[in-house]
Design goal:
mainly beta, Lipoxygenase-1, 6-stranded antiparallel β-sheet, 29 strands, 3% helix, globular
Length: 453
């Protein structure tokens, strides 16, 4: 391992890193500490509140950064572990800042604070930086990963803040400060549950009571299957139905992408496809069907053959769903399919084929909807017969800015999130069952509120 001092930097090879924020276990005057990360653009600012990975938002929408959990050892040390996958970092993210913060005291009372980085592939220790000058600070930028000449480097920063995580995050552009209670309104107590889901619509059964669970990233074993070697095998399969265009000029859909001839291919098992129709830069939808059960994945590939999108990722039987991709217009669009020995069909179509999200929507598996209404609140439900399920909903603005709207996993997960003003493409992905969405009026923000430890 290379130990560096404040201000020092060094290259960090590899694609996936694990980072530990280490300190003494809280207690006996030592305060609790939280680790977090911010994804920054070329101006050193977040693009939205979704670029903060912390206790209330433990995985970035891109999958590039996530909190893995906490580990303690017999020497009364504790480490919060994060993971960074540079293959998933979006092109406009130039820096990833790793921070530590405390709500219970200052860092002058936190012994042995340091950050270490290791290769997820080899376990090699890459960098170590120890903070030895902490005093009255309640938050620290410990270090940052940044791009330089096509490669990534790590810099030891060691910059302290007296304003905690909220003040630190606001300096980087986060706007998620919780509102003060109004006259006669009590503050929400620690540990209070989120507001209940809205009442079910006509003909919709109420969701049974169930416990929420922390967000879950796409399992690595599923992604590994998608990245397995391909062998193109053509076979007949059911063609995804052409959905009628429900939106048109004036709806804002033209801001997301232009029209082009649809591309349809069928096959069996594993294959790599090159879309041979002219596609303008912008968003496209990928409709896919797979007969039978087992894992089914579709990913888009960049010019170096690396994955840069996942429009299908499911274990649902007899799957039929829709995914979303943002195409840069550089070179042909390539798709890689993993379907075991099952028959499948893909259709690449323009975004003008999406349907509108009104007050409610229902579906199964993946889908893409256009929202054109005012800012509001999106509630979501997933009904499955499994002990655990994945449910991910994301919103995209015309410029590519993303919003994480739901990312939960449990038997009957329930979640709610602020919904930005339209036009917005709402993508339901990783839905292992029947789902429903409901749009309601805005709710008071509780971005920073956390459950009791």
């Amino acid at each position: 391992m290379t130990e560096i001092v404040k201000g020092g930097n060094l290259p960090v090879p590899g694609q996936v890193w694990r980072i530990a924020v280490v300190r003494r276990v809280a207690g006996d005057g030592v305060p609790e500490v939280d680790a977090s990360a911010l994804l920054l653009d070329a101006e050193g600012r977040v693009r939205s509140d979704g670029d903060l990975v912390f206790y209330n938002q433990p995985a970035h929408a891109s999958g590039a950064v996530r909190l893995l959990g906490q580990v303690r050892d017999e020497e009364r040390r504790v480490a919060d572990w994060l993971e960074i996958d540079t293959g998933r970092v979006e092109p406009d993210v130039r820096r990833i800042v790793i921070t530590a913060s405390s709500e219970d005291g200052t860092f002058g009372r936190v012994p042995d604070l340091h950050i270490r980085t290791m290769s997820a592939a080899t376990g090699e220790q890459l960098a170590l930086y120890e903070v030895d000058d902490a005093s009255t600070e309640t938050a620290f930028v410990l270090g940052e990963f940044y791009r330089r000449d096509g490669a990534w480097k790590f810099r030891a920063v060691g910059q302290g803040y007296d304003s905690g995580l909220i003040g630190l995050a606001e300096d980087f552009g986060i706007e998620g400060r919780d509102p003060e209670p109004g006259p006669g309104e009590e503050s929400a107590p620690a540990g209070e549950t989120a507001p209940p889901d809205p009442e079910p619509g006509p003909g919709e059964e109420p969701a049974p009571a169930g416990e929420t669970a922390p967000p879950e990233a796409i399992p690595e074993e599923l992604l590994a299957k998608v990245r397995a070697a391909e062998a193109a095998v053509q076979a007949p399969a059911r063609v995804p139905a052409q959905r009628p265009a429900r939106v048109g000029p004036g709806s804002g859909i033209e801001l997301f992408g232009g029209d082009f001839p649809e591309f349809v291919r069928s096959g069996k098992g594993r294959a790599t496809l090159t879309v041979d129709v002219p596609i303008p830069a912008g968003y496209v939808v990928v409709d896919s069907t797979r007969a039978g059960g087992g894992y089914f994945g579709v990913e888009s590939l960049d010019e170096k053959g690396r994955s840069n999108g996942l429009p299908a990722n499911t274990t649902l039987e007899d799957y039929e769903g829709r995914g979303l991709l943002r195409y840069d217009g550089k070179g042909p669009l390539r798709l890689r399919v993993s379907a075991g020995d099952r028959a499948w069909t893909l259709a690449v179509r323009p975004v003008t084929t999406v349907e509108r999200l009104g007050r409610r929507a229902r579906g199964r598996g993946g889908d893409v909807l256009l929202y054109t209404g005012p800012a509001g609140h999106l509630s979501s439900r997933l009904r499955v017969g499994l002990d655990h399920a994945r449910f991910l909903v994301q919103g995209y603005e015309p410029d590519g800015r993303g919003h994480l709207l739901a990312n939960v996993a449990s038997r009957l997960p329930r979640d709610g999130s602020p919904l930005p003003r339209g036009p917005l493409l709402v993508q339901v992905e990783s839905a292992d069952g029947d789902w429903s969405l409901e749009v309601g009026p805005p709710r008071p923000s509780r971005f920073w509120r956390r459950d009791a430890r």
